[in-house]
Amino acid sequence: MSEERSPHILPKAINPLHQMRVIGRFVRRTVKKPGASPGTLVHTGVRKVERTRIRYLDYDVGQINEAEVEDVRTCFPFKDSPTVSWINVDGLHDVDLIEQVGERFGWHPLVLEDIVSVGQRPKMEAYEGYVYLVLPMLSWDAEHAQVAEEQLSLILGERYVFTFQERYGDMFEGVRDRLRNARGRIRSRGADYLAYALMDAVVDHFFAVLEGVGDVTEQLEAEVLLEPSQRTMQRLHTLKRELISVRRAVWPLREMLAQLLRSEEEYFSKETLVFTRDVYDHTVQVVETVEALRDVVSGAVDLYLSTVSYRTNEVMKVLTIMASIFIPLTFLAGVYGMNFEYMPELHVRWAYPTLLIVMAVLAGGMLVYFKRKGWL
Hints:
Layout: H1 16-26, E1 53-59, E2 64-69, E3 84-90, H2 95-105, H3 109-116, E4 123-127, E5 130-141, E6 146-156, E7 160-165, H4 173-181, H5 191-226, H6 230-262, H7 270-335, H8 351-373
Parallel strand pairs: 3-7
Antiparallel strand pairs: 1-2, 1-3, 4-5, 5-6, 6-7
Helix pairs in contact: 2-3, 5-6, 5-7, 6-7, 7-8
């Protein structure tokens, strides 16, 4: 895309329409009517899939069954099954489906409301027989240099795990592959270990996002040092907003995991909690990396402003030196350019070349003086 733009188009960083879109990422909107009863199911997000997709993995140590089903009632027997079941639902717009699942598995109406209300803060809510977790899933859009965020709702029961996502595609293929091929200990552990594995996959994917942000940060730092432009400043501000988005997702997640580790409920066994501490440690690393990148971006902004100011000062210095040289020359030219009749120098044969020599000596002397002072 060409760098030229119409003078009537505001830069992206200060365009009010762009700012409204940015604010929309941080301000939660709702279509729920004020005064509606608690537990009213209203999908508050954007419909991101054409149809709801339901997939399940039902397994134990010796076998595994995997399928995609059209009717969610096919998964209802998993509540009382002795095997471990993972049911994943892609698409939150079908509130009737989610309500059916909630009634069959005995979930609280407020849990169902939170599932369809996107933009939830990462949190943990313990109920009798199950625990409800909200986690942010982040992905890096390298083409537009933006962080895409999606809400993941995870419900852990005694022998099942339900996950609700906004769109198709996730970062759980590694977990599915371990289940299919019986790699590691995941098939021999309970539903709590499966929930841990899913949380671990979510947090580990944060590092891929931060790697993408870090690459853009390095590129912008190089631009600031070599050839800064207004576009560089705009991209720095955009990157700062992306880091704010990541920080907004990660900080509450760290608090949620800390609450999970301190909880006296036994939804996670002691063996699984040991692994969950590792997820917490990774989250702390993510938080520290985000803060470090924010400092780097803020430093790049300061460096950009300093570079622009330095270049402006250099230009002003050159103009000042040129003006200082020409001020005495202009004075002499002005004096002898006056049209008075009685000016004795005007009638001297060598007055004109003498004046030129004087002006040249003045200019040369000032240049030597500026050079010795280090101004040139």
